[in-house]
Every structure is written in C-alpha cells, then in structure tokens.
Amino acid sequence: MNLRPQRKAPIDINLTPLIDVVFLLLIFFMVSTSFKDEARLRVQLPEAEGVAASAEEPPETLTIVIDAEGVFFLGEERVLGDDAATLGRAIAAALAGRDSAPVLIQADARTPHQAVMTALDATARQGLNQVAFAATRNGEAP
C-alpha cells in the first residue's frame, strides 16, 4: 500500500484576462476624469456695504492725437512744438483747473515711438495716471 499522498498537478491561474480588465478600468478612469486647473489665485474680495452709486458724470476724457509725422493735437487743436514741455503746458491749459482727467492717446500706426513716449512723459509730468491707447481691429475703419 502506498501511503504517501499523491502530488496533484499545480494549478495555473491565467492572469491575462485579469490584467486586461485592470488596464481597461485604468483607461476608463483616465478618460472620464476631468482635471482641475489651479493656475489662478483665489482671492476673496471685500464687500462694500452701504455705498450708494455715484451720481456724478464721468470726467471728460482728454484726447491726444498724434499723426504719422509725430505732430500733436489736443482734441481738435494742433499743439505747436514737439517736446514734452510744450505738450505739458497745452495739457495744463486743457485741464482748466481740474486735478485730473482720463487721457486717451490716439496715435497713427506710422507714428514714431518717440512721439508716443513724449505724450506719455507729458501726461506723467501733469500727474495724469489714467492713460489709455486707442487701437482698431484689423479691417475696421477708425
């Protein structure tokens, strides 16, 4: 009589279907997940309470026009001279006692950059810090 236990053949588990299912789940979760963009700073702004809307009209905008040759116009009037001091005196006269006003610089596309810098310098010397530049989109008429 043989009393030794007989060895059974080792059981082989086929892992291929299990790996296939795991990879399919991985692909599903990767495709269905949405990623959050955290590039912005989150700032909680203070709330204003009891502030009534201002009934004042916005101040009149001071327009400086610079043509292609670098000639300055303050509104519709030509400014004689091309230096910051002359333009500054014309701006001071146009302000007529006001402390400040928004400034709009309309420079021709062919205007020398020095003329634009002169206009910025003249507005800075007068203490005007609300400066905007006018531009047109491609194909639009001014």
Automatic annotation (TrEMBL):
Q: So where does this one cross the membrane?
A: 15-35
Any one of the GO BP annotations: protein transport
Which superkingdom, per the lineage? Bacteria
Tell me what topology the record assigns in the membrane: Single-pass membrane protein; Single-pass type II membrane protein
Pfam families reported in the protein's UniProt record: ExbD
Recorded GO cellular component terms are: plasma membrane
Q: Which molecular-function annotations from GO does this UniProt entry contain?
A: transmembrane transporter activity
| Major subcellular location class | membrane
Keywords attached to this Swiss-Prot or TrEMBL record, sorted alphabetically, are: Cell membrane, Membrane, Protein transport, Transmembrane, Transmembrane helix, Transport
**InterPro entries, from UniProt?**
ExbD
Give the family this protein belongs to, as stated in its UniProt record.
Belongs to the ExbD/TolR family.
Q: What is this protein called?
A: Biopolymer transportern ExbD
